[in-house]
Amino acid sequence: MSSRQNLNHELSKLFNKLWDADVNRFTPGKDYRISLQGKAGYVPTGTNNAKDSASHPLFLYVNEERLHNVKTFAAFVSLLDNYEMSTGVTEVVTPEEVAENNSFLDAILETAVMKMAHEYLVQKKLAKPTLKDFKTQLYSIWFQLYSREGGRGTDSCGFEHVFVGESKRGHEIMGLHNWVQFYLQEKRNHIDYKGYVARQYKSRPDEDDQVLNLQFSWKEMVKPVGSSFIGVSPEFEFALFTVIFLLSQEKVTKEVVRIEEYELQIIVYRHGRFIGTAYPVLLSSNNEDLY
Fold it and tell me: Which UniProt keywords apply (predicted)?
């Protein structure tokens, strides 16, 4: 069965509205430039050896002034250093970090993107009508700590996994599906980009593609395939993943949507009442690819 038959038209319509409303999104070629370089090789599961098909970083340039001056990006960046990388190590959340989490949610809830997502969820009776109550709901879904390994203390949360990334006891990368974190870690020489992962119907992505499948190492551990939006705002990703999370009670939800020219599968894993992980997978990025 082709993915076209599974396309969720209702969500595609909503997500395109959110895409158009995302005024904070960075423009490829203007606000940032990337260098895709070579195609990544195959990495067997459990190994941390990968052929390096990229001698340079992925990000050649990012407009840091925008990163620090756009309110939602600035609030987002301040959250990225608040977590213990390895699972099995209990997270301690300070009052300052709780305040930073709240400031971030306040900032994204002021945007048209999150307001539209909220309206949609209210119509579906999946969110409370006031933004104050919706903020409480978002805090629980994304920032409530839980035990990823079971019985080892509260060592994880949805935000940490998806946006910051974590390691499975220091041996395996989990999560890290956010381009800002990727860029900042790459700048600190913690991430080594290994090359792009080609898609089924297309040999090479384009430098202005805003969804990419990548291979990289992070602090010596290899991620064979990591998929990520590139350039989008934090509120856009929060809106997408939250909508899909709240629409389904399934442990794993996979929705095929078309946003702009991208045909994507958005995948959300549930960890009880919270987000376990969430990420986009690029299926194709123009019409010819579908045939």
Answer: Endonuclease, Hydrolase, Lyase, Manganese, Metal-binding, Nuclease, RNA-binding
* Predicted confidence (pLDDT) per residue in 38-96, tens digit: 888 888 766 778 888 888 999 999 999 999 999 999 999 999 987 767 677 777 888 99
- pTM of the shown model: 0.91
Give tens-digit pLDDT for 240-273.
999 999 999 999 999 999 999 888 999 999 999 9
CA angle 102/243/77 to nearest 5° reads 35
Burial class (CB in 10 A: 0-12, 13-18, 19+), 193: buried
**Active-site residue (options: 118, 135, 194, 223):** 223
Tell me how far apart the terminal alpha carbons of the chain are, to the nearest angstrom: 13
For residue 217, count other CB atoms closer than 10 A to its CB: 19
Q: Check if 161 is active-site.
A: yes
Contact of 47 with 220, CB cutoff 8 Å: no
Of the residues 17, 177, 187, 251, only one is catalytic, namely 177
Residues constituting the chain: 291
